[in-house]
Specification:
Largest sheet: 3 strands, antiparallel
Radius of gyration: 19 Å
Structural class: alpha+beta
Order of helices and strands: HHEEHE
Family: Belongs to the GTP cyclohydrolase I type 2/NIF3 family.
Number of helices: 3
Strand content: 15-25%
Shape: elongated
Helix content: 25-40%
Strand order of the largest sheet: 1-2-3
Distance between the termini: 18 Å
Length: 123
């Protein structure tokens, strides 16, 4: 197993024209790239989820800090939950799938790159 963090794996790119041009530019100009964002989810607690908890006030609803994406909330409707996120996160549009009157009490939220749930960027 490689000691290179998965976010730096480039084998899957090595022969693509865009990758080769970017690599050439970086090397010819001696550019160093530091991706600080990759450190946020490694903190304890996960820095991205901690920010989300603060923004929406849901830390008390966490099922487990080991799974910071699962919440048990007071029962609401799907429509009201969508309105909650629209307001709390100041987003213009929230799309829902399902019956807007459906009762909801268990919520899963996946944020950032982890939302892929795949563990590999190239997939």
């Amino acid at each position: 197993m490689s000691s290179v963090p998965r976010g730096n794996a480039t084998d899957w790119l090595k022969n693509t024209p865009v990758y080769l041009e970017k690599k050439k530019l970086i090397e010819s100009h001696g550019i160093a790239i530091w991706r600080y964002h990759d450190s946020m989810p490694m903190a304890q607690p996960d820095g991205i989820y901690a920010g989300l908890w603060k923004e929406i006030g849901w830390e008390r609803y966490l099922v487990s800090k080991d799974n910071p994406w699962i919440y048990e909330i007071p029962e609401t409707t799907l429509a009201d939950l969508a309105r909650f996120f629209k307001e709390k996160l100041s987003v213009g549009v929230v799309r829902i799938v399902g019956n807007p009157d459906m009762k909801v009490s268990r919520v899963g939220i996946l944020v950032g790159g982890g939302s892929l749930g795949l563990g590999r960027e190239e997939i």
